[in-house]
Amino acid sequence: MLELILQIFTDYTLRNVALGSALLGVIGGVLGAFTMLRRQSLLGDVLAHAALPGICLAFILTGSKVPLILLLGGGLAGWLASLGVLAVLRHSRLPEDSALGVMLSSFFGFGIALLTFIQHGNNANQAGLDQFIFGQAATIVASDVLNFMVLGGLALFTVGLFYKEFKLLSFDPDYAHSLGLPVRGLGTLLTSLTVLAVMVGLQTVGVVLMAAMLIAPAAAARQWTDRLSSMIGLSALFGALAGVSGALVSASRENLPTGPLVILSISAILLVSLFLAPLRGLVWDWVRTGQNRRRIFLERLLLDAHVLHNHDVLTAQTLAHRRRESPAAAQRHLEMLQARGWVQPGHAGYALTPAGHQKAHELEQAMRVLPKTLEGT
């Protein structure tokens, strides 16, 4: 693996593929954060699939397979699809997911029809157009990387310029509207920037897999933080890491496609985040749930012991009778309280320590306050 990493600086093809994939990860990660927060995860899928007829029409009109021309055609088609979705939502009663699904299938079906028409034509230059469906990262050259840098730089510069407005739009569009901000215009601008990310991704991971590069980095970053700025940074980092690692794994063996491996890499990062992220990871959630259950159990146990201490004798037998458990279990529970420093053995049984009395008093006070709080709400 170290050899492969060093080859990034010496191997022309690997360097271009790794840089192109990393740029896609950064741009997709940044813009995907806003897309996910706006609950428009399917929008990236629509834009990617809608790009296919634009690529085909660009080839039909120009007869050229220059990547920039094809990507501009795909980006324009994606942008028109996004405007179509907004128009459907504004002038019909269709829910958003239905509008997105209809637009996705319509544009992609049109793109497949155009692609079939081109393949059965007499133009020998049409070979390779179908690779945009699944990506063709191995064909990335230095000029493509430069195009990606220009498109990505434009997108990232715009995000930095309108960061506060995009942040408000993502979390509270009604409040943004009340402040007089052009909510529709900002939404269209953010969607247009997402189109730029799709244009970068078409050549790297293709139409089918592009949506994952918009959603997976942001979803992984969301597990680690509650701050938008940190989420954007982590999302960009995860996207870049997935791009470079996918390119390296692809270069390690023959006939390993880069695009799918980039998606597998970001999927692995997402799985690790879902399970191990301290903030929202499932493992830590299970740990916290177990700790909370143990805390609640011990607090209820202490309250039972406190009642017996005040009105009876606190022994394993009396505790077992009150809690309807065996004396052996009650003895273990008393030892648990003793380990916490809440009870101590005495001549006639167990007695609460000063710390146990104070903790029981705090719990009783909290139980008295809670019903009043609920009544107030």
From TrEMBL:
<keyword id="KW-1003">Cell membrane</keyword>
<protein>
    <submittedName>
        <fullName>Zinc ABC transporter permease</fullName>
    </submittedName>
</protein>
<dbReference type="GO" id="GO:0010043">
    <property type="term" value="P:response to zinc ion"/>
</dbReference>
<comment type="similarity">
    <text>Belongs to the ABC-3 integral membrane protein family.</text>
</comment>
<dbReference type="GO" id="GO:0055085">
    <property type="term" value="P:transmembrane transport"/>
</dbReference>
<feature type="transmembrane region" description="Helical">
    <location>
        <begin position="183"/>
        <end position="216"/>
    </location>
</feature>
<feature type="transmembrane region" description="Helical">
    <location>
        <begin position="99"/>
        <end position="118"/>
    </location>
</feature>
<feature type="transmembrane region" description="Helical">
    <location>
        <begin position="139"/>
        <end position="163"/>
    </location>
</feature>
<dbReference type="InterPro" id="IPR001626">
    <property type="entry name" value="ABC_TroCD"/>
</dbReference>
<keyword id="KW-0812">Transmembrane</keyword>
<dbReference type="GO" id="GO:0071281">
    <property type="term" value="P:cellular response to iron ion"/>
</dbReference>
<feature type="transmembrane region" description="Helical">
    <location>
        <begin position="12"/>
        <end position="36"/>
    </location>
</feature>
<feature type="transmembrane region" description="Helical">
    <location>
        <begin position="261"/>
        <end position="287"/>
    </location>
</feature>
<dbReference type="Pfam" id="PF00950">
    <property type="entry name" value="ABC-3"/>
</dbReference>
<keyword id="KW-1133">Transmembrane helix</keyword>
<keyword id="KW-0813">Transport</keyword>
<dbReference type="InterPro" id="IPR036390">
    <property type="entry name" value="WH_DNA-bd_sf"/>
</dbReference>
<dbReference type="GO" id="GO:0043190">
    <property type="term" value="C:ATP-binding cassette (ABC) transporter complex"/>
</dbReference>
<feature type="transmembrane region" description="Helical">
    <location>
        <begin position="42"/>
        <end position="61"/>
    </location>
</feature>
<feature type="transmembrane region" description="Helical">
    <location>
        <begin position="228"/>
        <end position="249"/>
    </location>
</feature>
<dbReference type="InterPro" id="IPR036388">
    <property type="entry name" value="WH-like_DNA-bd_sf"/>
</dbReference>
<keyword id="KW-0472">Membrane</keyword>
<feature type="transmembrane region" description="Helical">
    <location>
        <begin position="68"/>
        <end position="87"/>
    </location>
</feature>
<dbReference type="InterPro" id="IPR037294">
    <property type="entry name" value="ABC_BtuC-like"/>
</dbReference>
